[in-house]
Amino acid sequence: MAVQNRIVKVQKRNRALVKFDDTRIRRAILNAARSIGGFEQDRVPGVNETLFAAYRSEDAIAGFLADAVVVCLNSDPHHLISNFPPTIEIIQDEVLHALRSYGFQNTADAYECYRWGRHWLREGAITPDKFAGNGFPRARMEQTLAWNRQRGCDTVAGLNEIVRRGKIKALVEESLALYEQSLDEAAEKVMRRLASGDQLRMMWVSGPSSSGKTTTTVKLTERLQKRGLRFLMLNLDDYFWSLVEHPTDWINDRNYETPEALDIQLLNGHLTSLLAGETIEKPIYSFKEGRRVASKHIRLEPGQILLLDCLHGLYPPITEGIPAAAQFRLYIETQNVLAEGDGSNGRRTQFTDVRLLRRMLRDVQHRNHSPLLTILHWHYVRSGELFSIIPLSGLADHVVNGGFPFDLPALKPFFAGPDGYLPRPEDFASYTGFLDARIRYERIKHLLESVAGLTREQAASREIIPGDAVIREFIGGSTIKIPHNE
Asked: Among 292, 295, 354, 386, which residue has the least CB neighbours within 10 Å?
């Protein structure tokens, strides 16, 4: 469609005014789409099919979306004043708004991750070699894909065949052996750092929601404790702001997924003091009351390493002033590469959908939080990780893949059938305009329907899935103490 552009200038980050060029918007959208395999990755039945029918090339779709951005910019009369034009950040916000409004969720995620990665580059928090791009690490994904392909579990169809033929146990064992090997490598890196003279005083286990941080933290520290290391665990949930400082949104939800949900100034001060050998008054937070209710004396003893399991352990303001040589940072993400169906449509299943299913199960079983609310809340989860987690993943000293080929078969029995936890379509009747939740729901529903699952009895059996597997944090039966499940 042709639109009238009334925007004359753009304000750059250094406040200089330059001529507005809408072709740059189209090009940025097209680059984001192509980085994930094209707009076809975002075709959603009943949402944007008419766009694909009307605009038959990727250039044409990108042009339509760029025009939508211009329309949004024109709607603000302030932008029409030549000396008070839209800023680069406002334009980027409108790009994301247009992409998500038309259901191009994966393209928007790639754009947003790249956007914030560039932000952290400009801030000096990361160097070009640590830049995470669109958030999909090509080399690691190719390695995982090759491993899966050798075992015939690189597609949903291949995985289903393994389940139906009763060969899932062998796949579980091989997958977990690879994960354990990665933890062995992480432990070796820690010991080498210490042997080389680094004064390691702090170890972070960070990654997006439901990636398996808790199990990984326990397993890594057990390895290191056997080699003589001692740890002091610091629970960062105690640094949440009080509920009154977390405003609710239009569905009475709160955003706990942003790093700003934590009192970062207090936390950074406490971390600095602990490393200096000082005693701190660590707050104690009551989730029942939604506020800090007490405090506790904490001191890091000589020779101890401060242990932190945290979503935002890579977020620069938290560790401001603390040298990198004093820290070991492990990053974990579910990065199992799996193609939809038999792989012929060129679409991959989404890492974030596996984590969403894990969290839905954890929330309903251990936090009395309905799966519907978890889906409605997930846009906050995704926004937080695309800003302060995934773009900073290049800072990690070691990366662990917390996603496994058997995740979906193990999760399915808890969502299938009349007693399953998957919401019903009618549950979304009050949220018909919430496109993000609708797309996520339809996608995981279709994914679960396409997967051959284990039975609940098989999922519970430690003969198939050991009690210390990451997935046990979510399906239950873990032999590892999971504090947030108690």
From this structure: 295
The rounded distance, in Å, linking the Cα atoms of 361 and 476 is 9
Average pLDDT, the chain: 95
pLDDT in tens, 126-173: 999 999 999 999 999 999 999 999 999 999 999 999 999 999 999 999
Q: How far apart are CA 337 and CA 158, in angstroms?
A: 13
User: Which residues partner with 105 through β-bridges?
Assistant: none
Q: Are strands 202-206 and 327-333 parallel, antiparallel or unpaired?
A: parallel
pLDDT at 485 over 70: no
CA distance 186 to 199: 17
Is 205 within 8 Å of 187 (Cβ atoms)?
no
DSSP structure class, residue 297: E
Tell me which H or E stretch contains 410. helix 407-411
Q: CA 294, 300, 306, 310: dihedral to nearest 10 degrees?
A: 10
Look-up of token digits 């290049």: 394
Are 69 and 63 a contacting pair, CB within 8 Å? no
81 confidence band (pLDDT: 50, 70, 90): confident
Q: How far apart are CA 261 and CA 443, in angstroms?
A: 29
Give the chain's domains with CATH numbers: 9-128 (no CATH), 138-485 (3.40.50.300)
**Range list of H helices, 151-237:** 156-164, 168-195, 213-225
Q: What is the 3-state secondary structure (H, E, C) of 97-124?
A: HHHHHCCCHHHHHHHHHHHHHHHHHHHC
- Does pLDDT of 1 surpass 70? no
N- to C-terminal Cα distance for the chain? 55
Distance CA 224, CA 186 (A): 10
Structure tokens at 29: 């959208």
Q: Are 41 and 110 in contact (CB under 8 A)?
A: no
Instruction: Report how far residue 461's alpha carbon sits from residue 414's, in angstroms, rounded to the nearest whole number.
Output: 14
Q: Given the structure tokens 């398996």, which residue do they identify? A: 212
The answer to whether 187 and 200 have CB atoms below 8 angstroms apart is no
